[in-house]
Design brief:
single chain, mainly alpha, 25 helices, about 75% helix
């Protein structure tokens, strides 16, 4: 039975209207994509994300309203691409996976797979990223292979498959792979390769955050190599004084963390000279004082170090990070304890005499909080000199012996000669008794009562 002409025409009209609506939706989505790409080229990041998000909404509408269209996969790919570019990879995975598995178009399959692999990486599903990208890692299309290798290399790096990561990232040859490649080389024990890659990366724009991060990783394992790279970076003419100062400061902090105070002090001095009258210089000065505390064994230097520290002004967050208040309090305590007494001053009873305890606490702070072993030993040695009759003097001598074995013979001779009946001397001779335990308990109670609030929080 033939349809009436009016019905046939009506059906055709509806089909044409649906087709027009479909193409109009896809056209609008693609127009928004072009606007997003233009905004990205011009550095308008916020606007670009907004356009991408709008494009994703338009594409989603097309997908939902026209599920039987032969261009459904185009819309799925566009939606996944737009969502990824808008920073929403979690929602981009489903449309990209759908396009990958349903489209007969090799272009759509290729683009969907590459974007899907990147999205798996960005949501932290590194195993799926490797699996998804592997089919294209050896593609005859060089641009496809490069993209697949770059993201698969990063995924392998996150999975701690460092050898595979180094192989992929080296093969992709992209400049943006260099920091990741250097990191992989560090983990496989090839510091010279990491150094080479980083030095070859200097020609691009200086990304301070990225450089400081990779330098920390390199420096933690290979400080000498990191120092070489830092020296080369510091000579870049495009660095500001602040950037150069922060680079040197960070290198000094790595040396200090590695208990190389001499190397650290040299870097901190460079940072102060490079960026004078700056927040960087002030932080470097605080760190320089910490390094010098570890380098000196002269108690006469403490007042000048304290004065230098007290003159530094830091922002609250930086002061907290550098433990500035703790350091200032501990230096003030030791300086006051040293200057308040003179060698040979007559001591009082243990329960009423407090300056010998203060000096002991100050030495403990230098030893335990600031790793200033030689200086702490020197302060411990001051206690028997200034308070020869103090019950804590023998304990101070033993603490000094523990920190400075080169003076052990002379210090132990003093202990045996001047304090033969001290419980500490008797314990050293294997004659431990109740008097030693009682004295230890009494001293620890007194020492705890003298501790400052910052000391209690260590």
């Amino acid at each position: 039975m033939m349809r009436p002409p009016a019905l046939i025409l009506g059906g055709l009209a509806l089909g044409l209207l649906a087709g027009c609506a479909y193409y109009n939706g896809l056209y609008n989505a693609n127009r928004l994509v072009k606007e997003a790409e233009k905004a990205e080229r011009e550095g308008r990041v916020g606007e670009a994300r907004s356009f991408w998000a709008q494009a994703a909404v338009k594409a989603e509408s097309v997908v939902a309203r026209y599920p039987e269209s032969k261009y459904q996969d185009d819309a799925l790919l566009l939606r996944g691409r737009a969502l990824r570019a808008a920073g929403d990879c979690a929602r981009a995975i489903d449309p990209l996976d759908a396009a990958l598995n349903t489209s007969p178009d090799t272009f759509i399959v290729r683009q969907s797979r590459l974007l899907l692999g990147q999205c798996y990486y960005q949501v932290g599903d590194y195993s799926n990223a490797v699996t998804t990208l592997t089919p294209f890692a050896e593609s005859n299309d060089l641009s496809v292979a490069i993209t697949a290798l770059f993201w698969r290399g990063r995924a392998n790096l996150a999975l701690r498959e460092y050898t595979a990561a180094a192989r992929d990232l080296a093969a992709c040859g992209l400049p943006q792979a260099n920091f990741h490649l250097a990191l992989a080389y560090v983990h496989v024990g090839q510091p010279q390769q990491a150094e080479r890659v980083l030095l070859n990366s200097q020609s691009g724009r200086y990304d301070e955050s990225a450089w400081l991060t990779i330098m920390d990783t390199l420096g933690a394992a290979y400080p000498e190599v990191a120092a070489v790279v830092a020296d080369r970076l510091a000579r870049r003419p495009d660095l500001t004084s602040g950037e150069r100062g922060r680079l040197l400061l960070a290198d000094g902090e790595r040396w200090l963390a590695g208990n190389e105070p001499g190397r650290a002090a040299a870097r901190f001095e460079q940072a102060v000279i490079t960026a004078p009258d700056s927040a960087v210089a002030r932080a470097a000065l605080v760190q320089l004082i910490k390094a010098e505390l570890r380098l000196t064994s002269e108690v006469t230097r403490l007042p000048s170090l304290f004065d230098s520290l007290a003159a530094v002004s830091l922002a609250e967050d930086r002061a907290s990070e550098l433990r500035y208040s703790e350091l200032l309090t501990d230096l003030e305590s030791v300086v006051l304890a040293l200057t308040a007494t003179a060698p040979g001053a007559a001591p009082g009873e243990l329960t009423s005499q407090v300056t010998d305890l203060d000096l002991f606490l100050a030495a403990e702070a230098l030893r335990d909080s600031w790793a200033a072993a030689a200086l702490a030993a020197a302060v411990f040695r001051e206690i028997p000199r200034r308070f020869p009759e103090s019950a804590i003097a023998p304990k101070a001598i033993l603490a000094a012996v523990w920190l400075d074995s080169s003076r052990a013979d002379s210090l132990l001779a003093v202990l045996y000669h001047d304090y033969p009946e001290s419980p500490y001397t008797l314990v050293l001779n294997g004659e431990a008794d109740a008097a030693y335990m009682a004295l230890e308990d009494s001293l620890r109670t007194l020492l705890n009562s003298r501790q400052s609030p910052t000391s209690n929080n260590r």
